[in-house]
Design a protein that fits this description.
- The structure is a single chain.
- With 215 residues, the chain is of the alpha/beta class.
- It folds into two domains: 30 residues, no CATH class; 173 residues, Zn-dependent exopeptidases (Aminopeptidase, 3-Layer(aba) Sandwich).
- It is built from eight helices and eight strands.
- Helix 5 links the parallel strand 6 and strand 7.
Length: 215
């Protein structure tokens, strides 16, 4: 049998070395993330489990966030949107859990539901939070709709260094719907004639629809 030339032997040695140093060459590129699903929303009820968020007497933010999220999910689903939800119970989730879940589903947008808190019981307004440039329009659409729907002051949008917003692979925004610690909000939440949770869910839905109408 004819022996391989010195050049061929050298080439094979180099190739084997490269495969050893970079196994990706041997198995191909890693799988791509799933493609974005049109008009799909990943809903993230903030806090949960051992992390209660803010509170006002018996009303805990973690529970309020989930109640609003469930109502929003029902509205979106009934109107033909694809919905993913980071938690549907009182689970403790890290920021990594949240953005990894949404990214893996290929959702079009991520909306995280929160409520603000303050030691000043008279403070109340709506706020949208964003991190990336691509988040701006979604955050603005959400806060405008929530402020209008709930009749709260609109404090616009602010950049916020949230891991969920930063690592989300889609436009993402946090809605701080109102101040749970506000005395009037507390009374409305306990009202038998006003369904504040449903009103907020409807306002968030309107903001999402407005966003999709131009994106």
């Amino acid at each position: 049998m004819k022996k391989p030339s010195i050049f061929v032997s050298f080439f094979v040695s180099v190739l084997l070395l490269l495969l050893h140093l970079n196994p990706v060459l041997a198995v191909g590129k890693p799988p791509s993330p799933p493609p974005s699903i049109s008009n799909s929303v990943c809903i993230d009820p903030g806090h949960g489990g051992s992390d209660i968020g803010t509170s006002n007497n018996e009303i805990l933010e973690k529970k309020l966030n989930l109640e609003v999220a469930n109502r929003l999910a029902a509205l979106l689903t009934s109107n033909g949107y694809t919905i993913y939800q980071t938690r549907t119970d009182d689970s403790t989730l890290s920021n990594n859990d949240r953005y990894t879940f949404c990214n893996s589903r290929g959702a079009s947008i991520l909306v995280s539901i929160h409520h603000n808190g303050s030691t000043n019981l008279s403070i109340d307004y709506s706020l949208g939070l964003y991190m990336k440039k691509v988040d701006v329009y979604l955050a603005r659409s959400i806060v405008n709709a929530v402020s209008s729907g709930l009749g709260t002051d609109n404090h616009g949008i602010s950049r916020f260094a949230s891991g969920v917003l930063l690592k989300a692979k889609m436009p993402a925004a946090i809605s701080e719907g109102f101040f749970l610690t506000n005395t009037e909000e507390y009374n409305i939440l306990n009202s038998t004639t006003i369904d504040r949770r449903q009103d907020e869910a409807q306002a968030l839905y309107n903001g999402i629809v407005n966003y999709f109408s131009t994106h």
